[in-house]
Specification:
Blueprint: E1 2-7, H1 11-23, E2 27-33, H2 36-45, E3 50-54, H3 62-68, E4 74-79, H4 85-90, E5 95-98, H5 103-121, E6 127-132, E7 135-140, E8 144-150, E9 153-158, E10 162-165, H6 169-175, E11 181-185, E12 188-191, E13 195-199, E14 202-205, E15 208-211, H7 217-224
Parallel strand pairs: 1-2, 1-3, 3-4, 4-5
Antiparallel strand pairs: 6-7, 8-9, 8-12, 9-10, 11-12, 13-14, 14-15
């Protein structure tokens, strides 16, 4: 179920959106606010997946309210004023609904929400398949300490063993998730989570000191912060 909140200063608009949500099998209304100021404290106590957010409200506009949120749920902006559409889409809104909102148009917007949520919830792979001689070896990312260039091959240093594989560092860098691994040197790629400390132009992983090349230093420090 997609948890929704309505933020709109017009009672009729809230009534319509409430009914639309009740009629949709994948939605549940968890909160309803008559203005953005009321929503600020409410959303701090209860998170939602989707905001149905009116733009033109007194005291604080929907756009400025959304900009102020530290944790931003998906948002569908609603308004009777088409001139506000561009600013809404610049905030990566899922959709923009013009009042009076038709149910079929509402359904289209919710389908976009479902597509976004599906994409963001797809799990990142937790392993890589490595070719060792004529075998494919399944190496969990969490077991990899670092990778090292080895002539026409590469050494993959795992917690319990070292694998020698047929691959280039460039190819390995492209295949490994950048959230977990970073290139420190033309000959080394490290698992960020395995770094114990940085000393000078080296990082400590296990019993080894891995060099940090000058051209890679900024990227490495950025990932390790």
């Amino acid at each position: 179920m997609i948890k929704c909140a309505i933020i709109d200063d017009e009672p009729l608009s809230r009534d319509i959106l409430r009914q639309f949500i009740e009629d949709h099998p994948d939605l549940i209304l968890t909160a309803e606010y008559k203005d953005a100021l009321e929503a600020i404290s409410g959303l701090e106590k209860q998170s939602v997946d989707l905001l149905l957010l009116d733009i033109n409200m007194p005291k604080l506009s929907g756009v400025n309210f959304y900009k102020s949120l530290r944790e931003k749920p998906l948002v569908i902006f609603t308004t009777a004023y088409p001139e506000f559409a561009l600013e809404g889409f610049e905030l990566d809104a899922v959709d923009y609904l013009m009042k009076p909102i038709a149910f079929d148009r509402f359904l289209q917007a919710i389908q976009k929400v479902k597509n976004r949520l599906k994409t963001s919830s797809e799990e990142m792979p937790e392993h890589i398949m490595l070719k060792v001689d004529k075998k494919l070896y399944r190496a969990a990312f969490d077991d990899i300490l670092y990778l090292e260039a080895f002539g026409d091959y590469a050494k993959v240093h795992l917690l319990s063993q070292v694998l020698i594989i047929t691959s280039t560092m460039k190819r390995l860098e492209a295949e490994l998730p950048s959230e977990l691994f970073v290139r420190t040197h033309k000959s080394f790629i490290i698992n960020i989570s395995k770094v114990e400390f940085i000393e000078g132009n080296q990082v400590k992983i296990g019993s080894e000191m891995i060099p940090i090349g000058l051209r890679y230093r900024e990227a490495v420090l950025g990932k390790l912060k």
